[in-house]
Design brief:
By secondary structure, the protein is an alpha+beta fold. It is 40% helix and 23% strand. Strands 11-10-12-14-15-9-13 form a 7-stranded mixed β-sheet, sandwiched between helices. The longest helix has 24 residues. It is globular and about 60 Å long.
Length: 470
Amino acid sequence: MALPVTHRVPFRGRRTAVAPATCAQRHMWNLMERQLPDAAFYNVCHWVDLPGRGTAQELLAVFAELLGRHESLRTGFSRTPDGALVQRVAESGRFEAEVWTIDHGEDKESVLHAWRLRMRHSPFEPARAPLVRFMVTVADGAPVLAGFCVSHLAADLMSLRLLADETSRLLDAASAGRPFPPAVPSRQPVEQAWFERSPRGQALLRRAHAYWRRQLASAPATLFPVRDGTGGRSAGTDGGSTAAVRHSAALDSRAVALALSVLARHWRVSTSAVLLTVVAQFLGRRAGSSSCTLRLLTANRSDPELRGAVANLHAEVAVTVDLEGDRVEDIARRAFAACTAAYANGLYDPDEVTDLFEAATRERGVPVDLSYCFNDIRAGHGPPEAAGDRASRVTGEALRMAMADTVVASHEFEEGETFFLVIDDEEPGWVRLVLNADTRALTPSEVRGFLYDVERALVEHAEHAVADGL
């Protein structure tokens, strides 16, 4: 395999600044501290295939331009003497980029895999900006792939997708000898911190505080009751009596993709709400509960000033799905409404929410366990209007035939929760479900069984919808 050449490239932005950390930054800082000593656990990698135009030097200039445009990429974090977390934007400095030159017959994907594996074990120092590294793969003298590794303090998945698109546009301009196109105007993290302290921001935080209080008041204590081998505790409470071992499996399914399109149209909800409904039903049944409370991951970009923002705006917000009733479409519509309310309360003070958890524990006498996450990272969640034409062509036979192509295999995905489900659709026409679970809650065979059960339930519901003529 080719060996990389490491470059230390200068960058320059418009200003230096110091401000309080945002709510999302403080939330991520808290998560990272709990994950220590694995300081690289929240490193996030993303990549973009390039058309093989331009030069490596032009791409390095593009990376420098990205750092100049997006203050989050050149921000470090530290605590003040009184313990407050602050963000410090550097005006200039240097970033690290690796250039890999591959020969004919060498695979750029293997280079990417080796780089990602190393980045997974290469922690950032939070106080030392920039919290980003880059890589370039060059074939026949031109870049064919660019990779980004960032600390989750600096950027979330939506940001990395934005960076990938911007990288392609800027490289196209550079290789054609044109000036870089202007940056999309967006709120920088320093301004987000001051927004959160504004009257409007404070009103949003108060609303979210009340929302979380209601969620915790009604949430089941746990979705995974005690069973043999958990050391006398629910898996999510992790009292330390039994070491947590986690297992991940991925289900790749054409049938799920087809069924979601059918059901989104039939039930008049998003495809994400369809999937959440089925997952919540299985979790509720396991717990013997008429409701299911878990955490959704939200990008927090409904504000127009944040839609093009490269920053960490990620949050995990509680959502409760009411499972009462016999008609699954009614449950799905309630789930859709619950998701809408949850996303509207994605901006919250993480320390206040921690206090709410502690208060709920005192009131109940037992911890409230919300160590269950549902993360739909698909770029589009397929609203009914978009699914209509495709869904109208789906037959029951097509659904069953698609199930024959389903593959379930072990996966490298790691998380720290009792139950963490990720939904993606990188390959057109397919949906991937990746489930990581604490084996005290779900054994490896149960993880795989859960994924198959979700697919089967979706297909059965879709068959009924097709039989009803949509």
